[in-house]
Amino acid sequence: MLRQYELVEKVKGYDPDADEALINRAYVFSMKAHGSQTRASGDPYFSHPIEVAGILTDLRLDDETIATAILHDTIEDTVATPEEIQKHFGPNVARLVDGVTKLSKIEAQSESQRAAENLRKFLLAMSDDIRVLLVKLADRLHNMRTLHFIKNEEKRRRIARETMDIYAPLAERIGMYEFMTEMQTLAFREIEPAAYESITRRLAQLNKEGGGDLIQRIGRGLKAHLEANGVEAEVTGREKHPYSIWRKMAERHVSFEQLSDVMAFRCIVGSVEDCYRTLGLIHQRWPMVPGRFKDFISTPKRNGYRSLHTTVIHDEQMRIEVQIRTHEMHAQAENGFAAHWAYKEGASEVSTDHPWISDLVEILEHAASAEELLEHTRMAMYQDRIFAFTPKGELIQLPKGATPVDFAYAVHTDLGDQTVGAKINGRVMPLRTPLNNGDQVEILVSKAQHPQPAWLGYVVTGKARAKIRRWVKSKEREETVALGRKIFDEIVARLPEAPGWEAIAEALRRLNLADDEALFEAIALKRVDDLQVMEALNPGSTTGTGAKPPPQRTAISIKGLTPGVAFQLAECCHPIPGDRIVGLRREGEGIEVHTIGCDALASGIDADWVDLAWGDETDGGNARLAIVIKNQPGALAAIAGVLGSHGANIVSMDQTARDGSFHTFQFDIEVHDLQHLMRILAALRASDVVSTAERL
């Protein structure tokens, strides 16, 4: 832990004009406030805010931010008050401390709701001053470094998951890649310990097979080649981080052995011209892998990141990724927005000038629920960007995979609501067409149009999803009320006599409902059952009648179906929550639900197609996997262990092929949703006994 004078000297070392008295007052105030409190490690609690402040001094942040870091837990965890903070440290520090103060526990029905409400409050605070985010990220980073001291495994995993889902992508979005990488590594080690161990062990084995100095040898060769051609460069190399490798395995559906690029090298040169010259020299010397070149210098990322990326096949017959940048670009790449907050540039007052934060704030205002906000925010933080143009030449930035509908909503809400078609580069194209960099997009509109639920199957921006869902929810309420009215009529038919309006008004009072529409909605959503309604309408009518409550609701909830219509999940593709789905309706039959990529849809030309989406209260489903495993003792037990540790129940298992060293098994397993299945597949592919694992 930094001592008081060491912390002050560290700040004064890069900012001679820093307010030394402010930092000294904060140090003493925090030390007294935390008193004898201790952390799970047994260290004095006061050591934590000082370590957080130390992390931020490495970023050369201003004195107010350092003071905020020292004080950030005083309001939440001690008897200190916001008024005291403002009195002793001024309004700026008081505002920052209030923004960073640990969020109060929120009474919610689920952990996801609680996390989402925390995020909502956090984004509101962050939108006023991004230094709130910088302190919070440093706070979370130090907490992750000491996570192993917490004895409760469930608590450790919850903190790690929250770090992976929210804080690491937030760090990435503001370009703080060192923070992001360390958070991901620490969280991954906690969430998937077996996969983490497997990948790190294989990386060590790979380096050993290369003589123990493979990275250094490739780096020296790269540097020598550049210097021989007149380019001075700092060349460093590393193995890619375990979580990065894990994600690539999951995204590409490959095992570690099938992953070819696990090493990355960085060339730091003196100028932009040298960046492009270095790129040319590398491509002259080693074959380039098509489709892997990215120019973030001419088109920077939204967080300001600039660099050239390429992948080549090296002499060692392996793919290596190379990043090329200047020293200034490197500082920006490592510290992101924090590089703009160094003492020499002073502190900006409002951070909503940053486009991605503006987007999140807009979603914050329009998201229908806390969980919806969390979903949109995760999407916005994880996605890469593309650039498309309006017919007038206006540049519109969108996430990779965005469609014309996303484009329309990015231009204006009314344009999105009235979209009926789109021209991409002059050609009429389907609305689900993914846009590419440089596309010119013209949106075709009609005043009679309204948002379509099917759009939710392919839009990717939070703004578009929020607008569409708002309209869909209003439409769904109309349908819900209509269904409730129908059920109400059936309930009334079971009474000895039909109730008059006075009896209905009295029933509304007894059920604490505002009007008849609220009653119909409550009936349709099962907030009240038949017997409760009957008793409210005609007290005593249910006594001794033998009336039965309505049947239980199905555990599968699908939006887009007319209430009461029968449906079944197709056996050919086994759709699970999270899959994009479509329904086939044939005359005289119910609706059969398929995944959007199911081969059986080709035979559905004569059927009516129904746009469907999973509802909010779906318990999960069965997924079918084909797993090729090595023929060795304990292999099946290892597979069962992976499935069990990830909460998957094995429904059935069949051996479908046997070929000497490998056996192929078909597993039917119960999963919660598509994300759950993807985690299971990734874990299987990381197992030493698995050759391939695929969903059927």
UniProtKB/TrEMBL annotation:
<dbReference type="InterPro" id="IPR002912">
    <property type="entry name" value="ACT_dom"/>
</dbReference>
<feature type="domain" description="ACT">
    <location>
        <begin position="624"/>
        <end position="696"/>
    </location>
</feature>
<dbReference type="Pfam" id="PF13291">
    <property type="entry name" value="ACT_4"/>
</dbReference>
<dbReference type="InterPro" id="IPR043519">
    <property type="entry name" value="NT_sf"/>
</dbReference>
<dbReference type="GO" id="GO:0008728">
    <property type="term" value="F:GTP diphosphokinase activity"/>
</dbReference>
<protein>
    <recommendedName>
        <fullName>GTP pyrophosphokinase rsh</fullName>
        <ecNumber>2.7.6.5</ecNumber>
    </recommendedName>
</protein>
<dbReference type="Pfam" id="PF02824">
    <property type="entry name" value="TGS"/>
</dbReference>
<dbReference type="InterPro" id="IPR033655">
    <property type="entry name" value="TGS_RelA/SpoT"/>
</dbReference>
<dbReference type="Pfam" id="PF13328">
    <property type="entry name" value="HD_4"/>
</dbReference>
<dbReference type="InterPro" id="IPR045600">
    <property type="entry name" value="RelA/SpoT_AH_RIS"/>
</dbReference>
<dbReference type="Pfam" id="PF19296">
    <property type="entry name" value="RelA_AH_RIS"/>
</dbReference>
<dbReference type="InterPro" id="IPR004095">
    <property type="entry name" value="TGS"/>
</dbReference>
<dbReference type="InterPro" id="IPR003607">
    <property type="entry name" value="HD/PDEase_dom"/>
</dbReference>
<feature type="domain" description="TGS">
    <location>
        <begin position="384"/>
        <end position="445"/>
    </location>
</feature>
<dbReference type="GO" id="GO:0005886">
    <property type="term" value="C:plasma membrane"/>
</dbReference>
<dbReference type="InterPro" id="IPR004811">
    <property type="entry name" value="RelA/Spo_fam"/>
</dbReference>
<dbReference type="InterPro" id="IPR045865">
    <property type="entry name" value="ACT-like_dom_sf"/>
</dbReference>
<feature type="domain" description="HD">
    <location>
        <begin position="45"/>
        <end position="144"/>
    </location>
</feature>
<comment type="function">
    <text>In eubacteria ppGpp (guanosine 3'-diphosphate 5'-diphosphate) is a mediator of the stringent response that coordinates a variety of cellular activities in response to changes in nutritional abundance.</text>
</comment>
<keyword id="KW-0378">Hydrolase</keyword>
<dbReference type="GO" id="GO:0015969">
    <property type="term" value="P:guanosine tetraphosphate metabolic process"/>
</dbReference>
<dbReference type="InterPro" id="IPR007685">
    <property type="entry name" value="RelA_SpoT"/>
</dbReference>
<dbReference type="InterPro" id="IPR006674">
    <property type="entry name" value="HD_domain"/>
</dbReference>
<dbReference type="GO" id="GO:0015949">
    <property type="term" value="P:nucleobase-containing small molecule interconversion"/>
</dbReference>
<dbReference type="InterPro" id="IPR012675">
    <property type="entry name" value="Beta-grasp_dom_sf"/>
</dbReference>
<dbReference type="Pfam" id="PF04607">
    <property type="entry name" value="RelA_SpoT"/>
</dbReference>
<dbReference type="GO" id="GO:0008893">
    <property type="term" value="F:guanosine-3',5'-bis(diphosphate) 3'-diphosphatase activity"/>
</dbReference>
<dbReference type="InterPro" id="IPR012676">
    <property type="entry name" value="TGS-like"/>
</dbReference>
<comment type="similarity">
    <text>Belongs to the relA/spoT family.</text>
</comment>
<dbReference type="GO" id="GO:0042594">
    <property type="term" value="P:response to starvation"/>
</dbReference>
